[in-house]
Design brief:
It is a single chain. This protein is mainly α and 484 residues long. Helix content is 80%, strand content 0%. Helix 11 packs antiparallel against helix 12 and helix 11 runs parallel beside helix 15. The model has no long low-confidence stretch (mean pLDDT 81).
Length: 484
């Protein structure tokens, strides 16, 4: 079979200039499906907590497990795309994604439900990096910002309406329905991938999968997240907990050493030698924490503090989701004209303001204000995401863009997993502590105290991210000077 470049040229010859958008819509459908699946379950969390008798520091694994597995899947993407081609990797991942989603919908035990979410996350991780790689293949440099913005609009539009759809499904059918709602888009994406994505490049030498790296990464992430999540329940001096955290930390450290020695690593650490990429990596983690943790926490706040139904909570989140979706093409357009970091700092400040307002809210605060404040934060995140992507990959030479894409997305997902994990722990710890201090308090008042601390946690994380943002800016300046 011809090289990927030759296959793309033939596809352009067959479909003309519109092929760019056909390929973009194809990868957008896959990414939209898996991103929607990652967030739609959030409005169902309170119902699942009741059905399975779970606390916050247990049920969050439905989100954390998905995001953690997704990080592993993203690093497997480069190997999988070379082994099966973009088309084969997409079809394999989406096909298995449908299977594990059906398993999740019929699960009767919480561990099996978490396993299904982990399977969804692993396969979602295989799909997402294909989108950025495809866009960089079919769009010229001066149009990539616009393409990322429009692609991002489609991707974010799904999660924007996901809370409302999920809430209605939970209230009218069952929480199980949220596992099935994404499947039609998966099927359509598979049909389009068969026609519009390039196949395997047989001219490339086969690359062996770094199995040791996969095991070290999976063990390290799982152990660290489990240890952090169970510190409140088991006590931070518990020997088993401390052993698990030590094993996780050592595994992650050895993973880094192993990647530097392996001939074909999962994570090509050469990208960190380029000025600014470490800053962009940390910024991606922070943005991931903001996106996924706030998406996890906010619907819970509406239901557990304000007492709203799942459908009402979903509808309250819809304006913010739509605002974020429509901010994406604007941010992409601005990225083609202004400094990426300048746009990102505006978004960062908007999100910080959102967290400060939410932390200062009380039970007497009007729900209308909460909706507006949430919208403000989503606009901020929408301004940050497209320029962070184009800026990070713009720091690298073309040969390292596929690895850089996987590592950048890895950072966002691991940041999301840590953000959800720590926010859930924060809510449970401070709610319990506040409730024990004053037994006369209502459950909603105790929960509000815990949620406020989670909002403050995210605010502090975003303020600290000004340092890596500055490092990213300096790297982009050097890169532009070099290119010039």
């Amino acid at each position: 079979m011809a090289s990927v470049e030759a296959q793309v040229e033939r596809l352009f010859d067959r479909y003309g200039p519109r092929y760019r958008w056909l390929a973009t819509i194809t990868v957008m459908l896959g990414t939209m499906s898996v991103v929607l699946a990652s967030t739609i379950i959030n409005v169902a969390i309170p119902t699942i907590m009741v059905e399975f008798q779970l606390a916050q520091d247990q049920v969050h694994w439905l989100a954390t497990g998905f995001l953690a597995a997704m990080t592993v899947g993203m690093l497997l993407n480069a190997w999988c795309a070379q082994r099966f081609g973009a088309r084969g990797a997409y079809l394999l991942a989406m096909g298995l994604f449908i299977v594990v989603s059906i398993i999740g919908s019929v699960s009767e035990q919480f561990p099996l439900l978490v396993a299904a979410r982990i399977g969804q996350g692993l396969l979602a991780g295989l799909v997402q990096p294909l989108a950025m790689i495809t866009i960089f293949q079919v769009f010229p440099l001066n149009r990539r910002g616009q393409a990322m913005g429009i692609y991002g609009l489609g991707v974010v539009l799904g999660p924007a309406i996901a809370p409302a759809i999920g809430g209605v499904l939970v209230d009218t059918l069952s929480w199980r329905a949220v596992f099935l709602v994404v499947l039609p888009a998966c099927v359509v994406g598979m049909v389009m991938a068969w026609r519009y994505l390039p196949g395997k490049d047989r001219q490339l030498a086969p690359v062996r999968l770094d199995r040791a790296g996969v095991l070290l990464l999976a063990l390290g992430i799982t152990a660290v997240l489990w240890g952090l999540a169970n510190g409140h329940r088991r006590g931070w001096s518990d020997p088993w907990l401390l052993t698990t955290l030590l094993v996780g930390t050592v595994s992650l450290a050895w993973f880094v050493v192993w990647q530097r020695r392996h001939a074909h690593p999962l994570m090509d650490l050469r990208v960190f030698a380029y000025p600014g990429f470490t800053g962009s990596f940390l910024m991606s983690m922070v943005i991931g924490a903001g996106v996924f943790a706030s998406t996890y926490v906010t619907p819970l706040y509406f239901q557990q503090v304000l007492g709203e139904s799942a459908a009402s909570a979903g509808l309250m989140l819809m304006p913010a989701g739509l605002a974020m979706a429509f901010t994406f093409p604007v941010a992409g357009h601005l990225t083609d004209r202004f400094s990426e970091t300048r746009i990102m700092i505006i978004g960062l400040l908007l999100f910080v303001l959102n967290m400060a307002l939410m932390a200062g809210a009380t039970l007497a605060t009007s729900a209308v204000w909460l909706v507006w404040w949430t919208l403000l934060g989503r606009v901020g995140l929408g301004l940050m995401m497209p320029p962070s992507s184009t800026g990070a990959l713009g720091l690298l030479p073309p040969a390292l863009i596929p690895q850089g894409s996987g590592i950048f997305n890895f950072a966002r997902q691991i940041g999301g997993a840590l953000g959800v994990n720590l926010c859930a722990l924060c809510i449970q710890f401070f709610s319990d502590r506040y409730g024990q201090t004053d037994p006369a308090l209502s459950l909603a008042e105790a929960f509000e105290f815990g949620f406020d601390r989670a909002f403050w946690l995210l605010l502090i994380v975003f303020l600290l991210s000004l340092w890596p943002l500055h490092a990213m800016r300096q790297g982009l300046i050097k890169r532009h000077c070099y290119d010039g």
